[in-house]
Amino acid sequence: MYKPGGMVVSRISEEGEQVVVEAVAAASTGICPACGQESARVHSRYARALADLPACGRPVRVCLAVRRFRCANSACERRTFAEQVPGVTRTTGTCCSDWRQRWRPSAWRWAARRGRAWSGASA
Ligand SMILES: [Zn+2]
After folding, report:
1. What is the CB neighbour count within 10 angstroms for residue 53?
2. What Cα–Cα distance (Å) separates residue 4 from each residue in 33, 64, 72, 79, 102?
3. Ligand 1 center–CA 7 separation, angstroms
4. pTM of the model
5. Which residue, 9, 24, 13, 16, is CA-closest to 115?
6. Alpha carbon of 68 to ligand 1 centroid (Å)
7. Ligand 1 centroid from CA 82, angstroms
């Protein structure tokens, strides 16, 4: 599978004209931003829409499945924290320019090709 830094694309699907790329973080653990403790204890998961950009004339939406970890440090006042994928997610905001740059243009072309192939249309 295609791995833009720190992520693994898990699924490509279509919703009408739109290509939906679902990705998960490649790392198995998260680092607590408050105390720096590494944790593998997943508290919960949620989906985060990262980008909504056109690729080869088709709109592409990227959804990253983000895990929330429990901090393993009992002395830490931050009990849970959302994982961060370097260059992709930040503690604030839902999208950043690094992500867009990293995905352009090869990933968008790839996603659009996959979307086309799956819809049965010939290129
Ligand atoms: Zn902590």
Report:
1. 17
2. 23, 12, 28, 29, 7
3. 23
4. 0.58
5. 13
6. 12
7. 11
62 - beta bridge partners?
21, 51
CA 76 to chain centre: 27
- Note down pLDDT in tens along the chain; length 123 residues: 444 557 788 888 888 888 888 888 878 899 999 999 999 999 998 888 776 666 667 788 888 888 999 999 999 999 999 987 766 655 444 444 444 445 555 566 666 666 555 444 433
Ligand 1 mean position, distance from CA 107 (Å): 34
Distance 5 CA to ligand 1 centre (A): 25
Structural domain boundaries of the chain?
7-117
